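thread from #wetlab-drylab

HS: before we spend reagent money on co-crystallization trials with 2-(butylsulfanyl)adenosine, can we at least see a predicted complex? here's what I'd submit
DV: go for it
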Amino acid sequence: MTAIPAAEAHLVLSSSAAYEDALDRLRAASGAYYAGENSPLDDASYDALRLAVLAWEAAHPDEVSGSPTGLVADGAAPEGDVAHTTPLLSLDNAFGPEQLVAWDASLQRRLGRPVEGGFTVEPKLDGAAVAARYRDGRLVRVVTRGDGTHGEDVSHVVGSVVGLPERLAEPVTFEVRGEVLFTHEQFETAQRVRAAHGGAPFANPRNAVAGTLRAKDRPYRLEMAFWAYGAVDLDGGSFLPVGATHAEVLAAVAAAGVRTTADTPAGLHVVATVAEAQARVDAIGALRAGLPFGIDGVVVKANSAAEQAEAGLGSRFPYWAVAYKLSAVERQTVLRDVVWEVGRTGVLAPTAVLDAVEIDGSTVSRATLHNPADITRRDLHLGDTVTVYKAGDIIPRVQAPVAGLRPEDAVPVPLPAACPNCDGDIDKSQERWRCAKGAGCALAPLVEYAAGRDVLDIDGLGRTYVKALIDAGLVTDVADLFTLTEEQLTVASGSARRGAKLAEQFELARSRPLSRVFCALGIRGTGRRMSRRLAAHFGTMEAIRAASAEDLLAVEGIGPEKAPVVVAELAALAPVVDKLIAAGVNMTEPQRPGLPAVGEADAADADGSAPAAGPLAGKTVVVTGKMTGRLDGFGRSQMNELVERAGGRAGSGVNGRTSYLVAAPSPTGKPSSKAVAAEKLGVEVLTPEAFAELVADYLP
Ligand code: IVH
């Protein structure tokens, strides 16, 4: 230990609360130390705190109970050596498809023939391995992996690990092996609980689980999760079916009431060939960002018990299993700044500005933070080294500062004093701060967007009138537009003629298709095209509102990161949608002729629109120039809508996949660049009149 700085050496504890707090900090620090985490205290501060605790205990001997100072190594060193029944081995790694194939080849060499019993594919959970012993249906002991032959007894976690019940329905005896981890949600809760006890934030869920398994005398308990990936018989018992495959072993474990990898959203898959295993690996990799916990790879195993026995074990890992590693999704970088933006509902959303860092194949320089309370709880400082998590397309997020790496000039993240959008007051009554004007703060741009040409298309409702209506308190959300009277519109626009015209426009807007009404809500990630796909897929607002995040995944362009955002934002907009319904606004999408009734989601294809049908089925159509004849006045967006209604796809540039170019003959006789390209590629060019005839049934 280093010398204690003079200032700290005289630390004196003045109350029993300060003493309790010091004990918590000592326990947290020594726990972190032995768990290999970043200790929240450097050695000198730890020593000073410990001396102060000893001094207080000497002065108040009656109040000393359960102090770590009385325990060996402050009670934090790994305690007891529990022998494993059979070694808990690690896994060999594969870093790409070739290495998976090479692993299969080495397995074939050992067996002297190709694998016949198939393979299993399951997630590689990113936590800590434990062996959990059940005797007569009771969970009697939980042991860490340790060095593989001896582990630490961590039975203190019994009762706080979801998926690892204390009692089973049947009096069975066996040892289950699997991973303990914090799900993302449990990790957030753990950070809160820990902060409430004055503990330093965990740098990430993995460190949190290592620390939590070892910290035996924390004054609080943190809930964790367990999924089994194996089991062995105990005490010479015969819980496992003779000759059971890996999948059957896990099925027996699940039937006994313990959660297995087969119960995770990534699942356990049995496949015949290594090529199929690779496809499953890719599929699990694609799910990663949407999983409720971290995975760092996918495990492929020979399924047959006989083949496993034949292949055998090395000293560190079995030859019959391999971990296909996925790229790292967590990095450390420096937090430089925090910027605040006002969301559609008036919430002030902080974004971290970071030193650029490469994570999971993309460069990350911004990441989300939760809210001011969370920033304070995590004690984030500008200049801190922080852990940043990003998987797939998920929005990167800052997890925690890395204790011990804070530069001297770091300053606590400044919190805004006024709304960064309108400079007005902030409502701080909840953890998520809002502009006191609520949705009104960002209302003008949203209403303008909603009234725009390709959305509700309310001709004449420009920026000035929108502002006048908002300032008059007549419009507090998009739905209020439909409650305006002609008189109110007259006042806002300054003339009876304009008021009457606007009222007429609102009447027309009331019957716009669902896709446009949905778009007008301004939900993140649902612009015009996405709104059309959603409306085509679900048919009614009711069906979209009833859809789960999983249901939304069936719509092209909606992935696991966007789906929950759409569900959450639509739910938050329930009062606005209800108001729109009450105002008689259309909530259905017109059906395409000859198709099953809208809302029959099963009839829709994977692309999220109804199955390709109509005269443009399978065709890509590009539109250019001014439309004429029956299509006179049709803008780009209306034309795209028409193409999609008639079963086609709207393209933007002419290429080899273009089926038709719709273009009026040039009045100057000089063909457009698109027409030239079409000619060159042999793409058929249709006049607007010919195209209108082709899609006549679909014209509004
Ligand atoms: S099988 C004898 N399956 O990864 C085979 N391990 O890097 C032993 N792990 O020590 C392991 N998910 O802690 C297996 N589905 C899974 C796993 C898994 C996570 C961990 C386990 C192991 C480590 C090896």
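DV: The pocket of 2-(butylsulfanyl)adenosine is lined by residues 89-91, 122, 124-125, 129, 145, 179, 229-230, 261, 299, 318, 321, 323 (CB under 6 Å).
HS: ok that's useful, forwarding to the group
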